[in-house]
Amino acid sequence: MTNHWVDIANADRIMIIGSNTAENHPMAFKWVMRAIHGDAHQRKVGESKAKLISVDPRLTRTGSRADLWVPIRPGTDIAFIGGMINYAIEKGRIQKEYVIQHTNAGFKLNPQFKGAVDGIFTGFNPEKKQYDKSTWSWLYDETWQNPAGKKLFKSWVWDSGNNTWVAKWTDEKGTEVSEPDPKAGWALESRSVSKDINLGPGTVYDLLKKHFSRYTPEKVCEITGTPMEKLLRCYELYTDTHRPEMSGTILYAMGTTQHTVGSQNVRSYAILQLLLGNIGVAGGGINALRGESNVQGSTDFGLLFHILPGYLETPIDTWKDLKSYLAAKTPFYGEKAKEKDPKSVAWWSNFPKYAVSLLKAYWGDAATVENDFCYSYLPKRKTGANYSHIGLFDAMEKGIIKGLIALGQNPAVGGPNALQEKKALGNLDWLVVADLWITETATFWKRPGVNPSEIKTEVFFLPAASSVEKEGSITNSGRWAQWRYKAQEPPGMAKSDLWILDKLAKKLKEEFKKQGTKFPDPVLNLSWNYGEGEEPDVNLVSKEINGYYTADGTITVQGKQIEVKKGKQVPSFANLQDNGLTACGCWVYAGSNVNPGEDKYAPDGNRMKRRSADRSNEDPNHPIGLWSNWAWSWPVNRRIVYNLASVDSNTGKPWAPQKPVVWWNGEKFVGDVPDGNPTLPPGKRHYAFIMRKDGHGDLFSPDLAEGPLPEHYEPVESPIPNLMSKQQYNPCIKIWRPDEIGTSQEFPIVCTTYRVTEHWQAGAMTRNLPWLVELVPTSFVEIGEELANEKGIRNGDIVILKSKRGSIEIHALVTKRMPSLMVGGKKVHQVGVVWHFGYEGLGKGASANDLTPMVGDANTTIPEYKAFLVDIVKKGGAS
Amino acid sequence: MKPMAVLYDFDRCMGCRACQVICKMWNQNPAGPPASFFQGPGYQNPGSLNDHTFSVVRYNELVDPKTGELRYYFGRKQCMACLKPACASACIVGALEKLDYGPVIWHPEKCMGCRYCMVACPFGVPTFEWHSNNPRIRKCTFCYNRQGSKYEEVGVKFEGYSDEQKKQLEEDGRLMLSPACVTACPSDSMIYGTREAMLEEAYARIEANPDAYPKHPRTGKPWVYGEHEVGGTSWLLLSTVPYDKLGFPILPFEPADHYTKISMISVPITFTTVVIAMAGSYYLTKRREEVKASEGKTSKEKESKESEEKKGGES
């Protein structure tokens, strides 16, 4: 989340797309309801009147509370949002001043970039399924200098005859000169982004306008199946927030991300929000509702295959030493420092400090300058290999991976193409499952239809403590790290995850020391100091995460020299160093657990324990409610990120004065924690988007695999040809099992999967609780009345639902709430399946993921669970 | 102490059923049959209040008369805790008692099992343990055993209040534990306080958006369900959808005990016919379940057919 849960109550428009907040995040929906109705306890009735839009294939419990429910075919978000971007631009419903100041709309584009031609952007290599991104760039104004101190300036002018940018060199007097010759001693002195504040031809905005002009309302409705009248009502309602004093928030979840274009779906939301001036403001933002209470925390700490803690990329094999790793990941590294726009902070230029501090946290005294801080110990990814969930199970199936530890994960129910994944588990030598209950993964070897004697995998089950049976921090979607205490002892032999890992690490060290192994050093030298008690001290883990000084020394922070003492906690990531003087387990958490006495709300220094009810630091009645001293949020307790975009950068005045996030009080910026030095006055400050290389919100972004702008592609399994271009699906994805992709002739019905309030993820925690099983006793497929009539299916019938991957027997719930849609000139039926169920526990039922495809997004490989094709027949024929 | 009430706003309810679960937790009621998940619009389970379910969230599909669009509405049903409860006045041994702060509670030691209360209740709330040899009348107690406790008794300290303020808090019921369902609601669809304050809040919500709310079909005035119905109830309902569409009948304003008196004349007939009929029905259902169980696996299809037949009869 760019914002946080409580901030949703500050919104004027809430668009929930790809999420069913009321059902899957009921506690979050509290804040939506407060936005709609006004806080039942704190505000006067009727004071706040936000409008809620639910964009969803189904009329859900979220839709039931919405002012507008907009049906959409699964997998067509880019068309839907692309249409809204086009609408906003056409009708002039963008917050223009914000767009000029804070986004890269005015950047002059590299003229070699030609946009999308028949669905393919410039630079595509069809064999590698990869883009050469060299033209996905913009131009810079430059200042050159010769040894005599003379300066020349390069700028770019539009050549309307040739539709291209032409470089213009001038001297200090403004006279046009020829390009300087480096051989004559001329060298780059500094450069800054070349911007056309009129957003004229050749700019990002110009391209954006052209690109999305193809997404007309007619075209969008044909793709998404949304009725035109609802589409336009939605567009008008939401783009109301282009007014500076209004804000709109987009809440999304797995309905957005679990597609082969998942990342680009989110990009399309970001572009829309930037155009409407909704990023960095109260009641705005791009807000991912994370699916589990601590999934934000787990992402922060590098649970995914491509990142180490603190979003540092995991090294690949071509980055052989620390320097090549740092050079690849640090913008403006080394001699390139001159290329940085002086007004851009480009925060990632601090990458070396965070990477080295992490290595120091991993290997302590063993990590020295001489040995590259043990960089060689870090496992490296093979270039081109895929280590995502899909990739791992593929490797298990091929016998490459021999063992698996599943901590609180149940892939036999939750994984894509789960039939296949269960087979892959049978190829392992050993499997360890740690969970609260016996899961389908733990008993995959005796699942219905298999002979246990044929499965050789040795399976261990470790009973685990639940969240209330252990102490530690939990980080919610709004990046708030909150300390949680142990309420009771775990039952029986159940142990905390930390206990399990502590014992494992210590045992490995012991065994490696005793017997040796090929390369024992990374384990033997691992810094592992969490106490010698039976239960490791979680506070020591937290202290290491925050970071500490490894020796006495002097460091420079914001231009000031300070003395530091060995063993003291660092107050913030600004103090981290790249010379080994600091160790830090996760740089974004620096400042979460400081020295005792440094924070009056946290006596022992652990700021995650703070529980002050003041609405902000300055003002206990702060209108937007930052709750700055309740828990601690990363980064540096900032509650709304990019909050300097909420003010006019020339004056420091908030766009929406009635709900200010930060503001200039004459001496400094106050309110939320602003980015950078708060005393730098408006007009003289750096750009607002400090994490971006050039300091602006990216309308045009070279970061993603499949293009600098989102383009609509159909899901891999789709009922119609792509109406936007000849490119049927995302050109950059890998199809893992081409023979397992179905066609619309064979499987004409669109299927999506989802969760219900009453159950939790793969179900182990809820399908064993009688009260919850009573509410939703078994798995089911929701079928529209029209399709049910066609197939002779009645409410409660058992039906056979089949995809190219497999088939399941499941109860049918016939409903008005799942409409059929007119798509591409034909009627398309859609169905939805809950995916919580399996063959273990009290509440049993067919697993929806036995049907889902093993394809994933080109950037993250998140599986395409949310849009695939099926067919449905009534069990035993028509009756 | 002042009479207490819960204001339940249908338009803030998102049908999550946290209240239904916490109700079972607090009352230690088990989960169990019958299953009705696949009936009507689906999801609702059980289909109605029963001896182990004191509150149930009902799912309704309606076509919004203003927009012509399909709307999906949810609403709780539980004992309304009438101010003048018909069940209590129908009870000839005084086993049902109205407490001054709201709850209507049942005294097992007095009850003789006649079930007049079930017949008398205008909302069809009390249920009976037909399967038990020592059956009880079962219904929501308005959490009298929570409301009866004070926060201080369970270790919550009220510091920084003057004696006078504390007295006021006590009088307003603010020192008491609220009913379990209220504490579980994530969306503030239920709030708890004095009946007076809850009515005030209900009218304030109507006033803020007067056109959205239905008028009472007889009086033509703004309609807070439970304000006047059968003499008033401790549950006050507020909805933009007319209450009768949500399963709450249009009832007279006179207390139901007026009618109970009349119905008492029919006691002998009720006693003989209703009891025989209900016991017979229970036996038949039970027998059918036994047969079904003995048939083994094939029974699943039958069950779904049966539930289809039952569909429509329950709301």
- Uncertain segments of chain A are 40-47
- Compute the number of helices of chain A: 21
Cα Rg of chain A: 28 Å
Number of domains of chain A: 4
Low-confidence stretches of chain B: 296-315
Shape of chain B: globular
The CATH architecture of the largest domain in chain A can be named as: 3-Layer(aba) Sandwich
Rough outline of chain A: globular
> Domains counted in the coordinates of chain B: how many?
1
Describe the model.
The complex is a heterodimer of chains A (about 900) and B (about 325). Chain A is about 20% helix and about 15% strand. With about 900 residues, chain A is of the alpha/beta class. The model of chain A is unreliable at about 40-45 (pLDDT under 50). Chain B has one domain: 2-Layer Sandwich (Alpha-Beta Plaits). In chain B, the strands form four sheets. Chain B has a three-stranded mixed β-sheet, covered by helices on one side. Chain B has a two-stranded antiparallel sheet with strand order 2-3. In chain B, strand 4 (about 95-100) and strand 5 (about 105) form a beta hairpin. Chain B is globular. At the A-B interface, helix 2, helix 3, helix 20 and strand 30 of A face helix 1, strand 3, helix 7 and helix 10 of B.
Topology:
The complex is a heterodimer of chains A (879) and B (315).
Chain A: E1 13-17, H1 21-24, H2 26-37, E2 51-55, H3 61-64, E3 68-70, H4 77-90, H5 96-102, E4 124-125, E5 130-131, E6 140-145, E7 151-159, E8 164-171, E9 176-177, E10 187-193, H6 204-213, H7 217-224, H8 228-239, E11 248-252, H9 254-257, H10 262-275, E12 286-288, H11 295-300, E13 307-308, E14 312-313, H12 322-329, H13 351-363, H14 389-397, E15 403-407, H15 411-414, H16 418-425, E16 430-435, E17 458-463, E18 472-475, E19 480-484, H17 497-515, H18 521-524, H19 538-546, E20 548-549, E21 553-557, E22 560-564, E23 582-583, E24 632-633, E25 662-664, E26 669-671, E27 749-754, H20 770-775, E28 780-784, H21 785-791, E29 798-802, E30 807-815, E31 821-823, E32 826-828, E33 830-834, E34 868-874
Helix pairs in contact in A: 4-7, 4-8, 4-10, 14-16
Chain B: E1 4-9, H1 18-27, E2 56-63, E3 70-77, H2 86-90, E4 96-98, E5 104-106, H3 116-120, E6 127-128, E7 137-138, H4 144-147, H5 163-171, H6 180-184, E8 190-194, H7 195-208, E9 235-238, H8 257-264, H9 267-295, H10 299-310
Parallel strand pairs in B: 1-9
Antiparallel strand pairs in B: 1-8, 2-3, 4-5, 6-7
